[in-house]
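Table 4 source record.
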Amino acid sequence: MTTQKRVLITSALPYINGIKHLGNLAGSMLPADVYARFQRSRGRETLYICATDEHGTPAELAAIEENLPIAEYCTKWWAIQKELGEGFGLSFDYFGRSSSVQNRELTQHFARVLWERGHIEERTTRQVYSKADGRFLPDRYVIGTCPHCGYDRARGDQCENCTRVLDPADLIQPRSALSGSTDIELRDSKHLFLLQAKFSDELRKWIGERHEWSPLVSSIALKWLDEGLQDRGITRDLAWGVPVNAETWGPNPDGKRPDVEGLKGKVFYVWFDAPIEYIGSTKEWADSAPAGTNSRDWKSWWVGDDAQKNVRYVEFMGKDNVPFHTVGFPVTILGSGEKWKLVDQIKGFNWLNYYGGKFSTSQKRGVFMDAALEILPPDFWRWYLTANAPESADSSFTWQHFADTVNKDLADVLGNFINRTLKFTEGKFGAVVPEGGKPGPKETKLADELERRFGIYSVFLEEIQLRKAAQELRAIWVLGNEYLADAAPWTTIRTDKDAAAVSVRTAINLIRLFAILSAPVIPFASEAMAKALGLDIKTLHWPKGKIADEIAVLKPGHAFTIPPVLFAKIAPEQIAAWEERFGGAGP
């Protein structure tokens, strides 16, 4: 449970290369946003940081394909990803870039400190060299068969099928990702290694103290330790990345200085500098503050006693990213000997698949963020992906399941409640909250059940149990429908107008409450709900008192308008068209 005054949230950095699919959204950025919105609504100082991951071979290969200079390519796609994030309502406090000056300086700082403390050493390694390309081929420039699972398109840094971390030399039948040539050989190359192995005991103790971590995250982390933690190469033979500035380093504890000439032209491995960009992006946020203000102190979030005591740090990511955040990045932090903030909670996710298979950009299979926003409002996607978050196991997207979820939950339950409440009230009492009557047993029963459900919902959000939170939120909406059906104002108005006034007055107040409680998950609809009641969603905060009071805030005479249909139902012909366009269950 959150007790710290401030909450720092990061989601795994999306790769710069192209549009991200719904699985990327569901496994990091969206759940982080739901959690950030919830924390802000509770009045907690919250900082949600993300950025594009711009270094490494994916960026270089993609830039070559687009025939653009790598820096220009990254600038283009950073702007596109930022715009798409905003389209989905992702409330980043700052969306930075791992190619920033701030990240370069911080990465070089950590490398220097780690060297001078004896946690980095030089090794001459055998690296894959392509004769056809006339260059070394680091990590993702090499494709081959995974020695662990037999997947025949494993990359040289990680097998996306079994998630095992690899070195290019591990691959069976390796070939160049640039030319496809198998005319490759191993040659000597000087590189830097982060000495992870000597941190095994310290990491095991630290991981053992992280009681909030899910079995998914803990098991992945402990598996690495149980198999024997290996030292990790943190440099590559590339032109694009954070340069190794070894000439600025002092001697290590043995009095040795780095081989500046041997390290010339090398850059840091993307998985070394990318997590550091969480800090770098926070510094970008601070540096972007308006001139003359000192309101953004990035260090208070990340380093020093204040950060240790008063900041709760939560990371969101897919399961393939877990090893780097439970081993690599913590070793960087611990090895520095400085008071940097270590993560408190890692929320890891399984895969969201598409009809049981993986999303595929190359095969145009699945739904990507730009197309999703093109065909439907963002809240449709936000609700479905939250209600079906792949927390305990992989989940599979199908168009029929998506449509059923949206139609039943958003249209039939929430949308129907809002529409019939406001239309009936306008028709019988005018477009204002009606006066007359006093709350009775029905309203007391409703308030008691809402109080119970609200408490459970808040706990699930605090614990980041998103599927359970969505189920509880839907149950809260259902309470409104059940109350209205029981009160039946369309019947009672014939004989007892005051009783009808009480029930619709309560129902209108429920719309206000629903807007507040739904805002972390479906912020656009919540804003429209509040606006219909003449309210600004930004001024509405998480209930702190009795729910009975919350459903009596809007007094008689308060004006409202009837909003346009919030959740249009998805029709069978739309499902068929989308299966044809995006791929479905197959022939």
